[in-house]
Amino acid sequence: MNELQDIKDQLDFSVSELTNGFMTILKYDTGITKKSQIGSFKNETILSGHLYDKNDLYKVVYIKIDSQGQLIEVLHESEGVLPNLFMSENKEIWCLLTDTSTDKDLEIILPIKNRFDYSKPKGKRQFPGKFVGSFNNIGIIHDNDIYFSKSPDKILKIEFKNNKVKSQKQLKISTPVNNKIIIDSDGNLQLLARQKDKFIHRKCDLNGEILFQREIPFIMFNSYELLNLDEKGVSKVIFTESNKICIGSITADSEITDSVVFENKSDIFNLWKPIQFGENTWLIRFNFETGNGWLIIKEDSLLDCFIHDDFNGYKSLVTNEIIQIQYNDLILSDITKVNDYYYCVSIYPRSENPKENKELIILNKRITTGNTM
């Protein structure tokens, strides 16, 4: 296969310095949208997106930016659309890609770089999940249907050998459905799901076989995510209660205590999957009726919190740092880990037609508080 063409010279970009970070503004005159994002753990972030022309046709691209905000390359995808980014055993970035050479809605798996050593793979049934993580030579993608409570969760297990895909297999996970999922240090899947008036905590292997299960009393919440799950030690979840973000600690005996780490002026609607930095430091993205933001916690204490609420940019409620952005209605698209010191935030201005956006804003911020260095 051919390498992807670098079309970096088609984009305009500028970089400005922030307190403990950098802001990159990408500009494309006929429209730019961002679809997904992943940290490469090489001090870089890769974003997939669309570059539109005057006829509303688009190119699928992979935009690579380093932790200093510099634009490294913009690769034009030639084999398909709707890329779903994930990481292989050797920390290289791959994609699940809808093959455009057929009308059968089949999906192929390809690396972003170094395609010269590959033949085009045979297409398989599409899997619209989210990357959970990798263990040894196995990558796991999880799919759950939040709108249909009877549809079982599924995982796609991708096995690598010698930097190539050896096999891929779709597996169903037994009920309950809509699990939160993480891979533990032993390479097992830890699952937590609500079932009527209780939580069900399970552990299963990478073949979907249940190894452990327990019931936990229900915590009243609007939205929740996992910090860690451990059947022998203390598990932690982060959840919302009206305008508060709280941490719940669950013992091996299923006893629960909780504490408030952040209180907003209005109700918080949603949390996103936490990002871990170091042993006990986490970044959590959230939104509320009039804005959005992210907070950083260490153990049970708040280190920092940035919010956007009807003003031009983001403000830290801890340090009063202001990240000035010219738009007063911003969509927080995604946040991913760059390395143990930096995280990357992608933002764009709200628009009735996202294809009309001419700018994509990227923040690379350094975590400087706490003992994560």
Walkthrough of the structure:
With 373 residues, the chain is mostly beta strands. Helices cover 0% and strands 58% of the residues. It contains no helices and 33 strands. The model has no long low-confidence stretch (mean pLDDT 93).
List the helices and strands and how they pair.
Elements (H helix, E strand, L loop, with lengths): L4 E2 L5 E7 L2 E7 L4 E8 L4 E9 L5 E9 L4 E6 L3 E8 L5 E7 L6 E6 L12 E2 L4 E6 L2 E6 L10 E8 L2 E9 L7 E4 L5 E7 L2 E7 L5 E8 L6 E5 L6 E7 L2 E7 L5 E8 L4 E4 L3 E3 L3 E8 L2 E8 L2 E9 L3 E4 L5 E3 L5 E8 L4 E8 L9 E8 L7
Antiparallel strand pairs: 1-7, 2-3, 3-33, 4-5, 5-6, 6-7, 8-9, 9-10, 10-11, 12-13, 13-14, 14-15, 16-17, 17-18, 18-19, 20-21, 21-22, 22-23, 24-26, 25-26, 26-27, 27-28, 28-29, 29-30, 31-32, 32-33
Label this structure with key terms.
single chain, 373 residues, mainly beta, 7-stranded antiparallel sheet, 5-stranded antiparallel sheet, 33 strands
**What's the β-strand tally?**
33
The end-to-end distance, rounded to whole angstroms, is 41 Å
Q: Structural class from helices and strands?
A: mainly beta
- Could you describe the largest sheet, including whether it forms a barrel? 7 strands, antiparallel
Rg on CA atoms, Å? 21 Å
Average residue-wise pLDDT: 93
Low-confidence stretches: none
Q: What portion of residues is helical?
A: under 10%
Tally of alpha and pi helices: 0
Measured by DSSP, the beta-strand proportion falls in over 45%
Oligomer: single chain
Shape: globular
